[in-house]
Amino acid sequence: MERIAISVIELCDEDGNITPLAVVKDGKEFGIDKVLGVSRHAPAVACVSPMRYDCVITGKMRAIYRDAYPSQKWFSVRNSD
């Protein structure tokens, strides 16, 4: 698996909950139609205790991740086959 850095437009509410709204990659914005679930899940890549967001992005099921503090970087993963 390979870690792919992404930019995410997010909403942080008054309770500190983070909701991703769109993914930006290579200058293109991909709207997040729906967040299906959020869980603590570590993929088989270098990461810092990430949160996994299972989302529908432009009609397709995708998982995106956000590293915990202090990194707080967003990323996705792909198989390196």
Describe the structure.
By secondary structure, the chain is mainly beta. The protein has one domain. Helix content is 0%, strand content 62%. The chain contains no helices and 7 strands. The chain has strands at residues 2-5, 7-12, 18-25, 28-40, 51-57, 60-66, 74-78. Strands 1-7-6-5-4-3-2 form a 7-stranded antiparallel sheet, with no helix packed on it. Strand 3 and strand 4 form a beta hairpin. The mean pLDDT is 92.
Summarize the structure.
The chain has 81 residues and is an all-beta fold.
Q: Structural class, from helix and strand content?
A: mainly beta
- If helices are DSSP runs of H or I spanning 4 or more residues, what is the number of helices? 0
Bin the helical content.
under 10%
Alpha-carbon Rg, integer = 12 Å
The order of strands across the largest sheet is 1-7-6-5-4-3-2
**What's the end-to-end separation, in Å?**
8 Å
Round the mean pLDDT to the nearest integer and report it. Answer: 92
Largest sheet: 7 strands, antiparallel
Order of helices and strands: EEEEEEE
Give the count of structural domains.
1
Low-confidence stretches: none
Outline: globular
